[in-house]
């Protein structure tokens, strides 16, 4: 009997080692790839297929992938619905897909063949032989009419459920940047907690980080900014345990920085308690990689600072300041002292300690004292502004009293033939920051801001007979280079004239204003040269602004603007507005110009680098523009300056390097990328373009 049992056990063991044979009536789902290996930047497409028609009313699949080597790009919708967007998929390293029959009582049959395709892209710099894709079928069911709540599981087989597709030939390898913060911090309530963030490795230019903390214990002091070279933003939330928290995003780009302390986060300790300041993720990179690569992840060596807060809080009314010490914390049994910030009010003060009202003592110098503090202190107040006397000057009218924090106005009614030099004192001190407004009736209204009224006001108009005025003459417009005999000043009541020598190929318009009002110009044409015209004004009674504009009469509209200033060179943007002959395109020299929709309809652009002191005008550019047998490449506005198909901090870094003059030619950075750098389409590259890229980055 023992021998028989032994033989049966041996047979069972042998059978367990034999591969399972798929049941003939069960469907087989196969995952296959269009490539066996890829290079960085290339894509691979996975196909899910079915070997036979199958009745299915619900399904849930997922594909896990190596997120360090690949990023999810898209799914071609055939059978399944997406349950994971690209951003989430690339963070989790997992793509989900579902199928649900909306009318389960009517059976649905999947036809044999392709079910769906999923496309992934190998990351720049990736180099691995172990990158895998794993298919998991979490559920496959059909409708159960007898028990709709419990559908029938569909038995199935899987082929190619795990595929290894190597990535080889990566040209950029992350340099091993790491990020860390201190392990612990201990402070009292009201104090400032400083958390330095340290970047280790080699020199860098750009970083992005996301950091979290709990707002019931700490309050961020660093202000949210979105400036050239830096962005700090904060999003507050409530976690699953209903505790209030916050997520901080930090982005930096610009000049090269050395390893070490990158920045310091500063927090105010709000109340007793504990919290962790945690680095959730971080990316760091150097400028050289911004031309063609995305910033790599940095290693977080110590990503959590445990913060412990203790002590009583002191919440003072904004009207007061402490004299016993600085800050917003006080220890058990200590004495609190405070005084008004502004002596120009009368105050009513209420003080509570641990929620109970107490009566402070008030010293002769106005100091309030609260002894033996045993709980959190709250000081509130109401106040009434003080009033002061006003002494008016010659030819002025106004109220004889003025109130602190209420604007005070007075009016000057000037007498003919006199000038005034208004002087004001407040509390025996000279005051000059009053506002002046000239009214239509010739009077002038003066306003003293309420915040400046801290004492008695004395007004002195300093009235005296005046001398004739000297008025300023200002020329503006595109044609002022053709103006001569144009003095910049003129005496009151004197005539004024200037000469315009018109150039062929241009139309001119000339106008003038005197003290802001239009004034008529008399024209006198030179009898010997009809292009020479003298314009005159018979009597000047105010400042003159003369506008001379000229417009080319040529059919082709060529414009030139300064695009980027370098140390010894200037990059000019040349644009042509027009429609070239059919089958032709505008060219600057031998280079076909780009059709740039950002600058308008039928606008073509090119960039020209000239020496700093070299004159470059629209006429200079026009002489180099022709029609060529070519097709102009069309450029649409984009924040993807380095053309990686991803907008990140390296796009902002490239913009910064361009307007900082790092690239003096178009060898490393092409004309097209230079043109892409003007993301706000204002015909120049500057800090506003970099800020705009950061605001629209991933």
Q: What's the structural blueprint in terms of helices and strands?
A:
Layout: H1 2-16, E1 28-33, E2 43-50, E3 54-55, E4 58-65, E5 70-76, E6 81-82, H2 86-92, E7 94-100, E8 109-110, E9 113-122, E10 132-142, E11 152-153, E12 157-159, E13 162-164, E14 178-180, E15 184-188, E16 192-200, E17 206-214, E18 218-220, E19 225-227, E20 230-238, E21 244-252, E22 260-269, E23 273-285, E24 299-302, E25 304-310, E26 312-315, E27 320-322, E28 329-330, E29 336-340, E30 345-353, E31 356-358, E32 361-362, E33 368-370, E34 377-385, E35 387-391, E36 396-398, E37 401-403, E38 408-412, E39 418-419, E40 423-426, E41 429-431, E42 435-438, E43 444-448, E44 457-460, E45 464-465, E46 470-476, E47 483-484, E48 489-491, E49 496-501, E50 506-514, E51 517-518, E52 522-525, E53 532-537, E54 544-552, E55 557-565, E56 569-577, E57 585-588, E58 591-592, E59 594-596, E60 603-611, H3 618-622, E61 625-628, E62 634-635, H4 649-659, H5 671-676, H6 687-695
Parallel strand pairs: 1-12, 14-24, 15-25, 26-34, 35-44, 46-54, 59-62
Antiparallel strand pairs: 1-2, 2-9, 3-8, 4-7, 4-10, 5-9, 6-7, 10-11, 10-13, 14-16, 16-22, 17-21, 17-23, 18-22, 19-20, 20-21, 23-25, 26-28, 27-29, 29-33, 30-31, 30-34, 32-33, 35-37, 36-38, 38-43, 39-45, 40-41, 40-44, 42-43, 46-48, 47-49, 49-53, 50-51, 50-54, 52-53, 55-56, 56-60, 57-58, 57-61, ...
Helix pairs in contact: 4-6
């Amino acid at each position: 009997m023992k021998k028989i049992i032994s033989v049966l056990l041996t047979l069972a063991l042998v059978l367990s080692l034999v591969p399972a044979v798929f049941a003939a009536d069960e469907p087989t789902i196969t995952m296959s790839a269009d490539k066996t290996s890829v290079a960085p930047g290339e894509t691979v497409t996975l196909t899910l297929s079915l070997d036979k028609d199958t009745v299915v009313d619900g399904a849930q699949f997922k594909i896990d992938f190596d997120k360090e080597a690949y990023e999810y790009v898209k799914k071609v919708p055939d059978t399944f619905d997406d349950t994971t967007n690209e951003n989430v998929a690339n963070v989790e390293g997992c793509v989900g897909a579902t199928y649900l029959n909306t009318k389960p009582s009517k059976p649905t049959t999947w036809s044999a063949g392709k079910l769906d395709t999923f496309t992934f892209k190998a990351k720049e710099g990736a180099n691995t032989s172990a990158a895998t894709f794993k298919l998991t079928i979490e559920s496959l069911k059909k409708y159960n009419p007898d028990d709709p709540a419990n559908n029938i599981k569909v038995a199935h087989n899987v082929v190619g459920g795990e595929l290894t597709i190597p990535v080889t030939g990566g040209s950029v390898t992350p340099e091993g940047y790491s990020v860390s913060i201190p392990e612990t911090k201990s402070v009292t309530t009201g104090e400032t907690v400083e958390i330095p963030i340290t970047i280790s490795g080699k020199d860098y230019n750009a970083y992005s980080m996301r950091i979290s903390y709990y707002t019931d214990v700490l309050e961020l002091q660093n202000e949210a900014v979105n400036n050239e070279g830096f962005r700090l933003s904060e999003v507050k939330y409530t976690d699953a345990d209903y505790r209030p928290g916050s997520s901080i995003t930090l982005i930096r780009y610009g000049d090269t920085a050395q390893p070490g302390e990158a920045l310091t986060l500063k927090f105010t300790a709000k109340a007793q308690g504990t919290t962790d300041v945690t680095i959730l993720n971080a990316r760091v990179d150097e400028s050289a990689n911004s031309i063609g690569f995305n910033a790599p992840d940095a290693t977080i060596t110590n990503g959590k600072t445990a913060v412990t807060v203790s002590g009583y809080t002191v919440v003072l009314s904004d009207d007061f300041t402490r004299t016993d010490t600085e800050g917003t914390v006080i220890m058990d049994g200590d004495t609190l002292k405070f005084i008004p910030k502004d002596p120009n009010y009368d105050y009513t003060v209420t003080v509570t300690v641990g929620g109970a009202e107490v009566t402070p003592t008030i010293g002769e110098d106005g100091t309030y004292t609260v002894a033996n503090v045993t709980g959190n202190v709250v000081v509130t107040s109401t106040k009434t502004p003080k009033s002061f006397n006003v002494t008016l000057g010659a030819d002025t009218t106004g109220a004889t009293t003025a109130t602190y924090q209420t604007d005070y106005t007075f009016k000057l009614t000037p007498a003919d033939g006199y000038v005034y030099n208004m002087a004001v004192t407040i509390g025996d001190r000279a005051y000059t920051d009053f506002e002046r407004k000239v009214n239509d009736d010739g009077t002038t209204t003066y306003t003293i801001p309420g915040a400046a009224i801290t004492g008695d006001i004395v007004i002195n108009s300093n009235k005296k007979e005046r001398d004739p005025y000297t008025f300023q003459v200002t020329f503006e417009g595109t044609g002022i280079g053709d103006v001569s005999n144009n003095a910049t000043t003129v005496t009151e009541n004197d005539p004024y004239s200037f000469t315009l020598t018109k150039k062929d190929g241009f139309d001119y318009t000339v106008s003038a204003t005197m003290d802001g009002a239009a004034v008529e110009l008399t024209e006198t044409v030179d009898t010997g040269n009809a292009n020479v015209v003298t314009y005159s004004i018979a009597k000047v009674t105010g400042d003159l602004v003369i506008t001379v504009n000229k417009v080319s009469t040529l059919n082709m509209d060529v414009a030139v603007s300064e695009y980027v200033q370098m140390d010894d060179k200037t990059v000019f943007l040349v644009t042509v507005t027009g429609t070239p002959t059919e089958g032709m395109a505008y060219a600057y020299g031998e280079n076909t110009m780009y059709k740039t929709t950002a600058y308008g309809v039928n606008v073509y652009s090119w960039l020209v680098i000239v020496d700093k002191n070299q004159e470059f005008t629209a006429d200079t550019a026009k002489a180099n523009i022709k029609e060529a047998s070519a097709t102009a490449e069309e450029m649409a506005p984009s924040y993807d300056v380095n053309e990686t198909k991803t907008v990140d901090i390296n796009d902002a870094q490239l913009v910064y390097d361009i307007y900082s003059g790092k690239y003096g030619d178009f060898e490393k950075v092409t004309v097209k990328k230079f043109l892409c750098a003007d993301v706000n389409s204002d015909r120049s590259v500057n800090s506003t373009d970099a800020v705009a890229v950061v605001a629209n980055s991933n």
